[in-house]
Design a protein that fits this description.
3-stranded antiparallel sheet, 566 residues, 5-stranded antiparallel sheet, 42% helix, elongated, alpha+beta
């Protein structure tokens, strides 16, 4: 029994002895401004944990208040309180059992009240007269193996004493076999694990999720961008991440297995000492070894729950040709092909030592990039984009779409020779993120991003870029093969994702954007190829090369827009 150290001081030895003899715990005993506060606890016949709190002036008032509580205890009201929970959490299913248990609580309270008041407890009872006919008496005699017809009173008394002694003698020690224990253990384990025979590890709270650094590191290992461990063939990224997370939760698994084994041992105690001894005789030192005897199938991680978190992700895009030129194609197309007068020109880059290479060749080569892909995917041409660039350099009039205008503004905000890549910023749920990364690693299908996606040009190596204000008109559909780099921001976690993990500076490292820049714009994966505008770049070159600026009659101010030109 649990006792507060102040109990005997406040209530006195006599009262505490009465409470103790009736298995009533004094779990709290405190001196208060108006007297004292006493907390009592006992268990009913059916195992209900009954709590009684009494505020009183002194010991005599405690006895009085206890008697009032016993007198006022309403059996029907008490039973009604448990009716809704019948059959769950140990509450009896039967209403009759609830009423009977409530009545036993009231009887018990009245009994203890009488003892506290120093008077013998009496219960209302009816006088019962027991009589046996000859047949019944013969049955009793046969059961006790007594010959009542020939026995003296003394012999009969001795026989009855022997029967009573036998009834009071300790039961013969029960033996429980290993097979019985294992059968019981299998049933118990199944009940405790809802029939799965597994421990399911779930997040401990809203802030318990898989960190950005864990996901990114696993993806880089899996995709081969950093050294990785040997993994089975045909393992998906989701499976690879699962193994990584499960390994990191090893200590948690050990703790949970210990707790599960402890629960089983506690339940075994209810079946008696012989059962506990048989359980101990299984001689399994580790919790896992004991659980394994009962069909335990290990621990599993609820990845869906652990991934139910929004992550800030940067997708840095590039075509295969673009990668051949170290992600400089966009800069070379925008800043190297067009001269200061808006005319196309041949700029001598180190890549081109062949003097037979023309400006047309350069345009065709450098226009194979992610930005040109986006222009075609949105229903426009490189011609229109570059014509707008020409017009802006030459301060000429040229009406174009909001999308093309926003693209040219992005180009205008960058500088020649930088390694700009088309970069999309998204906020994505972890479960969708793993789905997307699985496809990126496989190089299959296409990613669909909504029109509210924040997109711009970014140089991860130098930590520089444009304004991220490209205005999409249609959903952006990107082949997974075009995702060159996946960056993940820390998402507010203490385990910050490093620049090294992000392969260069992350977008947030450079800009310090507010979280709203990462929109929930991910729409899923599609195996349907995107529709692209088809464009002959030789013809485009000819049209751009014949560019003639149309001057505005309005005199422009002195502010010069050099469009990134030296």
């Amino acid at each position: 029994m649990a006792w507060d150290n102040n109990a005997e001081t406040l209530l006195g030895e006599e009262l505490t002895n009465i409470l103790d003899s009736n298995d009533i715990s004094v779990y709290s005993a405190e001196q208060t401004e108006n007297g004292m506060s006493i907390g009592l606890e006992f268990y009913s016949d059916l195992g209900e944990d009954v709590i009684v709190d009494i505020d009183c002036k002194d010991k005599d008032d405690f006895v009085k208040k206890f008697g009032e509580y016993a007198q006022d205890f309403d059996v029907n009201e008490h039973a009604e309180m448990w009716i809704e929970g019948r059959g769950t959490n140990g509450v009896p299913e039967s209403i009759a059992d609830l009423l009977e248990d409530a009545q036993s609580i009231k009887n018990f309270l009245e009994q203890v009240s009488d003892e506290l008041e120093g008077k013998e407890h009496t219960r209302e009872s009816a006088e019962v007269t027991v009589s046996f006919d000859k047949e019944e008496l013969d049955k009793i005699a046969a059961f006790a193996e007594l010959d009542v017809d020939t026995m003296s009173v003394e012999d009969l008394a001795e026989a009855l004493h022997s029967i009573v002694a036998e009834m009071e003698a300790p039961e013969q020690e029960q033996t429980v076999s290993k097979e019985e224990v294992i059968a019981w253990g299998k049933e118990t384990l199944s009940d405790l694990t809802n029939g799965t025979n597994q421990l399911v590890i779930t997040p401990s709270g809203y802030d318990d999720f898989i960190s950005s650094s864990t996901i990114l590191n696993a993806f880089q290992e899996y995709s081969g961008s950093k050294p990785k461990v040997i993994r089975p063939e045909n393992t998906s990224f989701s499976d690879y991440l699962y193994d990584e997370v499960q390994d990191s939760l090893f200590d948690n698994v050990m703790y949970l297995e210990e707790d599960l084994a402890s629960q089983i041992k506690t339940l075994a105690e209810e079946k008696g000492d012989a059962f506990v001894e048989a359980l101990e005789n299984l001689d399994e030192d580790l919790p896992y070894e004991l659980l394994e005897q009962f069909g335990y199938e290990g621990a599993t991680v609820d990845m869906s729950e652990f991934l139910d978190h929004d992550y800030k992700v940067n997708l840095l895009l590039a075509t295969e040709q673009e990668l051949n030129y170290d992600n400089t194609s966009i800069s070379r197309m925008a800043h190297g092909i067009i001269g200061e007068d808006g005319k196309l020109t041949l700029k001598d880059y180190n890549d081109f030592h062949d003097k037979t290479v023309t400006a047309a060749d350069q345009l065709e080569t450098y226009s194979d990039n992610a930005l040109s892909y986006l222009v075609h995917q949105q229903g426009y041409t490189v011609e229109e984009m570059m014509h707008t660039v020409q017009a802006r350099i030459a301060e000429s009039n040229y009406d174009t779409s909001e999308f093309i205008e926003s693209v040219v503004n992005e180009l205008d905000g960058t500088y020649s020779d930088y390694n700009e890549q088309l970069t999309a910023l998204i906020s994505i749920n972890g479960n969708n993120l793993v789905e997307m990364l699985d496809k990126v690693a496989e190089g299959k299908d296409n990613i669909v991003l909504g029109t509210d996606t924040v997109i711009g040009l970014y140089d991860r190596m130098n930590g520089a870029g444009s304004d991220f204000e490209i205005q999409l008109e249609e959903d952006m559909v990107i082949p997974t093969t075009m995702v060159q780099i996946v960056q993940m921001e820390s998402s507010g976690r203490s385990d910050v994702v490093s620049s090294k993990d992000n392969i260069g500076y992350s977008v947030d490292d450079t800009y310090g954007f507010v979280g709203t820049q990462w929109q929930d714009s991910y729409k899923g994966i599609t195996d349907k190829a995107p529709t692209l505008v088809q464009e002959n770049m030789k013809e485009t070159y000819e049209k751009l090369n014949n560019f003639e600026p149309e001057k505005d009659d309005v005199i422009k101010d002195d502010k010069e827009d050099d469009f990134g030109l030296d």
